[in-house]
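User: Here's a structure from my thesis project, written as structure tokens. My advisor, Dr. K., wants to see whether a designed sequence matches the one we expressed. Can you design one independently, without my sequence as a hint?
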């Protein structure tokens, strides 16, 4: 392949990459590996052995052993970063130089996702984190680049453009890690990500790798009919299968013949870049090379066509009809809405909760919202309660869904269950952290934030659900830097949020912020209403509850009041706030103090 570019090679051949470096190298390394990329310095002969084995198996492209070589992984040690990357580049090229000139493989600089700034502790985003890595590779003479196992497109178009400015002839591949259902760990749909990067002229090929095995990636390509865009190519590099853990070691049980058969089917769809990810070995690549040789000889008719199987063709016919969503319909009709929050019980004593829900239903409330383990303390599940309210009382319910307690799989499972139960409204919030004293026993998840979760649910609405969710989000009108809150709210709306529920409006500044948000965001907004019921309660809300601020004169108005006077004052305060913000909100989000729904009823009667 001397003097032939990747583009020229792909015009006549499928480009077969090598398989996994990390999992295969760990099999060869008796000493064990802390960080696979450090083997470039600590165990160079074994890295070289892996490269040689894949070339002997028939690979025509080698990935450098630099997947996680970035400032975050190496504690921002720039000298070590350069040493690891330089050694990885030299080892791959050394293995390539041992082949006859006409058979020398292409060398791809391999870059994995850069850790988020919060995780890395370096204050760097994807671009800032990976640009030093690119600079090193470019100085070494790299012309082919593979960005693999990414969960979203952030920074990739900019990094590709940066490469092309330095090296116009460069060939850039981007690859996303999707689960069998087609979503990344950030909750992004693989098909959407593929379309986004295919629209970038600096990216030459795009596709998927890791997490999923070959069958599910092939199935996803067929179902989504994901074909190469004009001037671009598809890249597919699945895992060997799905891992099992034996004696604290991870094994992949998929056999090479099966793997090769599945990749052969993917090749028939028109995919031009193939290879392997976790669990694949030289035996897998050798089997794929033989399968591709037979494929080239046979030249099967219909290659590149995307045909849906019988089950895929009839699935839509069996789907249920969309369900009505009264709350959404009222919102879209411009009706003034009333949502009331009911905190779920801390035990199994449910009759009181259900009785309060009946009272609110009779009072004409449009929807009951149910918090999801507020302040990080376990309570009865908000989604199960929402389903019970809907099923037994016919009440529209709005369960809160935090990003704190569920990973992506659990979140999707819950959303599917809510959908079939007819609960098609959801309020997504990042969630309060676990109390410090409990963090040794209870772990937060936080796979994503509320904006990412909104995007994920929005994608489900478009691709999976018969009845789409009406997505609500939170807006903190009490924030000191309200400009930041407006920016976050705009991101939420861009990601699919359709309505915002605010923190309680109990200060002049909060009312001004609400007016500003109403004029700037152009979204449906429910103003938060939570009247204090005593002087002590007012002080507690102001000082102890995150996101709530009261004007000092409001707090003082409760001083020296009797319980009866304070309760009546609370009703007056709520009515005054509702009247004051009526022109710049689309309804009210009422939070009864201590779950006292009778106060809500008095407010509604006033």
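Assistant: Designed independently from the structure alone:
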């Amino acid at each position: 392949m001397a003097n032939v570019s990747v583009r020229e090679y792909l015009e006549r051949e499928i480009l077969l990459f090598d398989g996994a470096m990390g999992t295969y190298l760990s099999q060869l390394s008796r000493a064990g590996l802390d960080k696979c990329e450090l083997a470039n310095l600590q165990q160079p002969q074994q890295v070289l052995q892996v490269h040689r084995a894949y070339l002997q198996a028939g690979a025509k492209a080698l990935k450098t052993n630099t997947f996680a070589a970035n400032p975050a992984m190496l504690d921002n040690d720039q000298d070590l970063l350069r040493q690891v990357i330089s050694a990885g580049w030299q080892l791959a090229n050394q293995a390539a130089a041992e082949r006859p000139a006409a058979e020398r493989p292409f060398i791809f600089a391999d870059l994995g996702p850069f850790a988020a700034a919060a995780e890395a502790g370096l204050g760097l985003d994807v671009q800032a984190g990976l640009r030093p890595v690119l600079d090193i590779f470019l100085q070494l003479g790299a012309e082919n680049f593979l960005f693999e196992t990414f969960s979203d497109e952030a920074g990739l178009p900019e990094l590709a453009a940066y490469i092309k400015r330095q090296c116009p002839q460069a060939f850039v591949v981007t690859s996303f890690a999707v689960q069998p259902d087609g979503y990344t760990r950030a909750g992004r749909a693989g098909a959407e990500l593929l379309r986004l990067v295919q629209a970038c002229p600096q990216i030459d090929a795009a596709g998927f790798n890791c997490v999923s095995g070959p069958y599910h990636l092939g199935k996803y390509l067929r179902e989504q009919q994901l074909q190469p865009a004009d001037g671009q190519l598809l890249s597919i590099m699945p895992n060997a299968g799905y891992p099992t853990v034996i004696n604290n070691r991870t094994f992949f049980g998929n056999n090479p013949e099966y793997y090769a058969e599945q990749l052969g089917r993917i090749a028939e769809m028109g995919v031009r870049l193939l290879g392997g990810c976790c669990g694949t070995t030289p035996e897998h690549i050798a089997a794929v090379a033989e399968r591709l040789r037979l494929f080239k000889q046979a030249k099967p008719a219909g290659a590149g066509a995307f045909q849906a199987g019988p089950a895929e063709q009839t699935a839509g016919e069996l789907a249920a009809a969309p369900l009505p969503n009264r709350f959404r319909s009222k919102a879209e009709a411009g009706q003034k809405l009333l949502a009331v929050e009911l905190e779920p019980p801390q035990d199994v004593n449910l009759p009181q909760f259900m009785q309060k829900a009946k009272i609110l239903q009779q009072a004409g409330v449009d929807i009951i919202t149910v918090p999801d383990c507020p302040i990080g303390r376990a309570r009865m599940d908000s989604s199960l309660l929402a389903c019970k309210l809907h099923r037994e009382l016919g009440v529209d319910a709005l369960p809160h869904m935090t990003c704190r307690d569920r990973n992506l799989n659990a979140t999707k499972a819950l959303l599917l269950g809510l959908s079939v139960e007819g609960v098609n409204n959801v309020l997504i919030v990042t969630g309060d952290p676990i109390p410090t004293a409990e963090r040794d026993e209870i772990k937060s998840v936080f796979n994503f934030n509320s904006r990412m979760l909104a995007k994920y649910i929005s994608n489900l609405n478009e691709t999976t659900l018969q009845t789409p969710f009406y997505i609500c989000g939170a807006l903190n009108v009490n924030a000191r830097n309200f400009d930041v809150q407006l920016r976050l709210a705009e991101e939420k709306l861009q990601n699919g949020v359709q309505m915002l529920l605010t923190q309680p409006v109990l200060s002049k500044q909060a009312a001004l912020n609400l007016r500003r948000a109403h004029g700037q965001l152009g979204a449906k907004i429910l103003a938060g209403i939570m009247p204090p019921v005593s002087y002590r309660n007012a002080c507690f809300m102001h000082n102890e509850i995150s996101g709530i601020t009261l004007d000092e004169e409001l707090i003082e108005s409760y001083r020296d009041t009797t319980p009866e006077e304070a309760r009546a004052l609370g009703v007056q305060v709520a009515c005054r706030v509702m009247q004051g913000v009526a022109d710049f909100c689309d309804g009210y989000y009422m939070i009864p103090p201590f779950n006292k729904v009778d106060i809500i009823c008095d407010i509604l009667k006033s």
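When you compare it with your expressed construct, this may help: The radius of gyration is 28 Å.
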